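Example 130, ligand zinc ion.
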Amino acid sequence: MSSLGARDIPVYRFSKSETSPARASIDGIWINEEMFAGYAEFQKLYYLAHELGHLARGHCRYSPSLARELEADVAAAHLLCSKGYRWAVEQYIQHLDNVVSCYGPHARADEIHPTFLQQRDCLAQALAGA
Ligand SMILES: [Zn+2]
């Protein structure tokens, strides 16, 4: 995350019609406060770190892609581990295990994001190297 430097990252609220928990744009990070209110601490930390990963890697200038989503997942895992929140990544992986158990190995949030199993394996691999 060193490319973020010391500049502040503005955080905005989503409109109520948004269906994702958070997203990054060139303006900053947008949070769906209604969805966040129902999340556990590890989920809030993970989603914010994931969006910071998109910002740090300049993804907001490009169309979303599977590769960029996985890259943001790796960045999130490394950022959280470097700041003492390895537990949040571990709990997020457990959460993904539960989702895969419920919905199967091919389940995904949408066509842009990886399957939950791909995301889980990506994060487990990132943790092994962190
Ligand atoms: Zn993303």
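Summary: The pocket of zinc ion is lined by residues 50, 54, 69, 72 (CB under 6 Å).
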